[in-house]
């Protein structure tokens, strides 16, 4: 049964079928894959590394290797380098409104820059993410928050007219009860993946909603008590796991629009964009390779005691304070005791890791200079041109990402305006939002300052000084050029503070110190001359001159 009308969400039978599909195998697999990416991004790859090792070794071998499991955040490093749309700041303008202070104040209150940076990271990580603008109670009134959703926290019924757009969004908690099964191909291994996964499956809790705060994966552990929040342009309600509406009210959407903005990259005629798993899988495999190398280096680095001969002791202690004593009779072979050591190719294996990382970075248009597997410092200073070439990354890819945000962030501001207008009319907003008015017709445009070329601080200051000398910029613009994090208002405040400090220094120089006869003459003034100059300013000629 496909969605042909938005009113179908009011039918309990339809909702029950949707919830059955949400908890079905296909959709659970999608969420598990997204959660695996989330865990790797949050510096938790060890569980996935162990499951990958179980595809090659048995459980007892992996048990021995647990001490060597590495958890190095390759994925987070790469995603942070790729998500750079907002790294140089953003300029939000309202063509129909001259004063931009209001939008800057609201953006600062909502922490929009940091929220959009998170959207950029999630977009690079998942290729699908949503920004969810919603009101929430705050000290007897309401504030507005923008929550960035990972794709395992929501499900979508796409629009029948345009399948890349959502018509209904269902929010729910998620707990990966059967994680990482998909990374083990049972056709390629005779070992039982189920046994291995159950041995190393992460224990996420008891499945109960505790009084204290739970982690994100603990909230939805109990499927039977899980709640589902339904949103469509005209309807909004909460149901239980069977599809029964448990929320109060008439079930209408108060703003008449979905409070979500979908950010997706490379959609191919369907809602969920696929691809981009190279970063996640490579992060896990690199850690698996590092685990192999660590285990090989440690296990083969120890010398193995061997003894040959007759009448040898069954067990011995070795060390500088212990002696191995063996006995033998005349005519018997002389016992031989020695340590055997291996020579594992650790250097060659590390070269394999470096090649893997270099290919991963280069295929994602990143410089390899930021990666180092040793503590050796730089071997020399690069010239300016060499440094620029080495640090340069794909400008086309950044511009492609930027266009997604130019198109979608204004939609998010329209949703924020709807909530702000609704609660402002009822005088229910917190003071920072109640005192401002966002225009009904936002018509916002987004622009991103171009990336600054790679240069030293001295070169940057020379450029600023030259532009000041040629009167090409105001002092406010020069301050913003020096520090991209400054807004126009904060730059004005900083310029005023600098001016006040300058005036204070000048005043302290030109204004004479107050003389208090009781305290004696000021220390910084010389003792008055007993023979002052004549009033006509001529220097007298006489003894001692």
Plain-language structure description:
This protein is α+β, with helices and mostly antiparallel strands. It has three domains: 6-203 and 216-278 and 397-446, no CATH class; 303-340, no CATH class; 457-507, no CATH class. It contains 16 helices and eleven strands. The protein has helices at residues 12-22, 25-41, 46-54, 59-64, 74-82, 101-110, 112-126, 193-200, 277-299, 346-363, 384-391, 395-425, 431-434, 457-469, 475-482, 488-510; strands at 91-93, 128-138, 141-149, 154-158, 166-171, 228-231, 236-239, 260-264, 304-308, 336-340, 445-447. A four-stranded antiparallel beta sheet has the order 4-5-6-7, with no helix packed on it. Strands 3-2-8 form a three-stranded antiparallel beta sheet.
Mean pLDDT score: 81
* Helix and strand sequence: HHHHHEHHEEEEHEEEHEEHHHHEHHH
Number of E strands: 11
Low-confidence parts: 178-203, 377-390, 525-545
Brief overview:
The protein is of the alpha+beta class and 545 residues long. Helices cover 39% and strands 11% of the residues.
Spell out the blueprint of helices and strands.
Layout: H1 12-22, H2 25-41, H3 46-54, H4 59-64, H5 74-82, E1 91-93, H6 101-110, H7 112-126, E2 128-138, E3 141-149, E4 154-158, E5 166-171, H8 193-200, E6 228-231, E7 236-239, E8 260-264, H9 277-299, E9 304-308, E10 336-340, H10 346-363, H11 384-391, H12 395-425, H13 431-434, E11 445-447, H14 457-469, H15 475-482, H16 488-510
Antiparallel strand pairs: 1-11, 2-3, 2-8, 4-5, 5-6, 6-7, 9-10
């Amino acid at each position: 049964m496909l969605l042909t009308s938005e009113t179908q969400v009011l039918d309990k039978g339809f909702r029950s079928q949707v919830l059955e599909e949400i908890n079905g195998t296909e959709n659970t697999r999608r969420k598990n894959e997204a959660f695996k990416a989330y865990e790797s991004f949050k510096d938790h790859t060890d569980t996935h590394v162990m499951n990958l090792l179980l595809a090659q070794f048995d459980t007892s071998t992996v048990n021995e290797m647990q001490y060597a499991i590495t958890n190095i955040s390759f994925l987070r490093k790469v995603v942070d380098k790729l998500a750079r749309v907002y790294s140089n700041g953003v300029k939000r303008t309202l063509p129909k409104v001259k004063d931009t202070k209001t939008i800057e104040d609201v953006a600062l209150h909502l922490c929009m820059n940091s929220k959009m940076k998170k959207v950029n990271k999630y977009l690079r990580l998942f290729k699908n993410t949503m920004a969810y603008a919603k009101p929430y109670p705050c000290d007897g009134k309401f504030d507005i928050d923008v929550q960035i959703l990972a794709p395992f926290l929501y499900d979508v019924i796409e629009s029948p007219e345009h399948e890349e757009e959502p018509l209904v969004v269902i929010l729910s908690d998620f707990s990966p009860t059967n994680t990482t099964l998909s990374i083990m191909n049972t056709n390629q291994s005779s070992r039982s993946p189920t046994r291995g996964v159950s041995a190393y499956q992460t224990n996420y809790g008891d499945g109960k909603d505790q009084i204290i705060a739970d982690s994100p994966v603990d909230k939805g552990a109990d499927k039977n008590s899980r709640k589902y929040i339904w949103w469509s342009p005209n309807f909004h309600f909460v149901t239980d796991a069977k599809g029964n509406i448990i929320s109060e009210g008439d079930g209408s959407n108060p703003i008449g629009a979905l409070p979500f903005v979908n950010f997706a990259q490379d959609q191919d005629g369907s809602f969920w964009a696929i691809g981009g798993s190279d970063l996640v899988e490579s992060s896990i495999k690199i850690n698996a390779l590092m685990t192999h190398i660590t285990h090989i280096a440690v296990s083969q680095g120890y010398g193995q005691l061997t003894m040959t001969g007759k009448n040898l002791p069954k067990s011995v202690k070795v060390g500088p304070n212990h002696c191995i004593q063996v006995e033998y009779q005349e005519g018997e072979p002389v016992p031989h005791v020695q340590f055997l050591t291996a020579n594992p190719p650790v250097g060659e294996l590390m070269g394999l890791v470096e090649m893997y990382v270099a290919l991963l970075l280069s295929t994602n248009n990143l410089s390899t200079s930021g990666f180092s597997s040793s503590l050796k410092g730089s071997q020399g200073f690069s010239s300016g041109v060499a440094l620029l070439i080495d640090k340069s990354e794909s400008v086309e890819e950044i511009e492609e990402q930027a266009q997604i945000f130019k198109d979608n962030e204004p939609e998010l501001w329209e949703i924020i305006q709807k909530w702000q207008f609704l609660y402002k009319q009822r005088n229910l907003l917190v003071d920072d939002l109640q005192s401002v008015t966002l225009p009904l017709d936002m018509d916002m445009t987004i622009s991103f300052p171009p990336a600054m070329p790679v240069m030293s601080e001295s070169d940057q200051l020379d450029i600023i000084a030259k532009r000041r000398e040629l009167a090409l910029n105001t002092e406010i613009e020069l301050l913003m050029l020096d520090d991209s994090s400054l807004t126009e208002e904060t730059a004005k405040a900083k310029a005023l503070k600098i001016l006040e400090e300058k005036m204070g220094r000048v005043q302290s120089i030109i204004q004479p110190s107050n003389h208090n006869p009781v305290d004696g003459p000021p220390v910084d003034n010389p003792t008055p001359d007993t023979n002052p100059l004549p009033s006509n300013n001529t220097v007298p000629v006489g003894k001692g001159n």
